[in-house]
Design a protein that fits this description.
13 helices, two-stranded parallel sheet, Rossmann fold, alpha/beta, 10% strand, five-stranded parallel β-sheet
Length: 307
């Protein structure tokens, strides 16, 4: 029994050490944050519609800056804000934030892939904010149990702990940008349309809007410029989304309140062509590269990075 516990604790430490060295997806982003490796001029913040849509290479080359994409899968705003606050604890403040805001931003759900936080759960900011968001922090702090049923994560940590560089190519990013090179698959979207509409009525939580307001105000006090961006969404998905009008109004109101530009690409020509998407809410690599050039040029025209 004692030997089993000792071996379990040893395995847990090995997996944690390996995850800190992992160079894929959110593990890489968190590693870069805590190692103070980012210190970007331009930060891109959002969900997977940020990480899959905005190329840091194109932003860098067009604007002549050092950018980093902090977008994360299933990251609603409260998680985006958490990641940004932890970032500020270990990295210098950015000159500009490209803040993605869309129909999914203001929901609230603690279902985000939780093992990404385990290597850094001792950080006080991360710990307290995850607890307030409804995550099972006790589980994240408990050796062995925190990896229960997480076989792929254990495998990832073990391989990287022993420098086998087990980093699946499909999940490797460049400064947080993680494009998906797939063709259109509208099956899931068609299933949603059988219900007549996509319900976003619960995606306008007022406490999240208030947190968003507080965040914009703090960025203004910190002299950080912001541009709000609605990245391309397959137009039929946008049109069939119930609740979209109120969410869009709230975003425009925030833009007006803080005199922040809002680049709304919900009606962009990309949105009407399936070849630029791999599903109804995500651009594929082709679409993302085209969009990133558009976005970089539009930001350039706004002269937000002029001294």
């Amino acid at each position: 029994m004692v030997l089993t516990a000792i071996l379990g604790l040893a395995l847990d430490r090995i997996v944690i050490a390996g995850l800190k060295k992992t160079q894929v997806g959110s593990f890489q982003t968190w590693s870069d944050i805590f190692a103070s490796k980012i210190n970007a001029d331009v930060l891109i913040i959002g969900s997977s519609r940020a990480s899959r849509h905005i190329s840091t290479a194109i932003i860098d080359s067009t604007l002549q800056v050092n950018s980093y994409n902090l977008g994360g899968d299933s990251y609603y705003f409260y998680m985006q804000h958490l990641r940004y606050d932890v970032y500020r604890s270990y990295n210098t403040k950015p000159r500009l934030i490209v803040q993605c805001a869309d129909l999914m931003t203001f929901a609230k759900s603690p279902t985000t892939f939780f093992t990404q936080y385990t290597p850094y759960i001792s950080d006080s900011t991360l710990n307290s904010r995850l607890a307030s968001a409804g995550f099972d922090v006790q589980r994240l702090q408990t050796p062995i149990y925190r990896f229960y049923s997480q076989i792929s994560t254990i495998k990832l940590g073990m391989f990287n702990a022993f420098n086998f560089n087990y980093n699946p190519p499909a999940e490797q990013s460049y400064k947080g940008y993680l494009p998906i090179d797939k063709q259109w698959d509208g099956n899931a979207f068609l299933e949603l349309l059988k219900k007549d509409s996509i319900n976003t009525l619960g995606f306008d939580r007022q406490e999240v809007f208030q947190e968003f307001d507080d965040y914009l105000r703090q960025c203004s006090l910190d002299s950080i410029k912001i541009v709000l961006v609605f990245t391309p969404l397959y137009r039929s998905a946008f049109d069939h989304s119930r609740g979209k009008d109120q969410i869009m109004k709230n975003i425009y109101d925030m833009s007006e309140k803080y005199k922040i530009p809002f680049l709304d690409y919900s009606g962009d020509t990309l949105c009407y062509n399936e070849k630029y998407f791999y599903n109804a809410i995500h651009l594929n690599t082709l679409g993302a590269e085209i969009f990133s050039h558009k976005l970089a040029n539009d930001i350039n025209e706004l002269k937000l990075l002029d001294e």
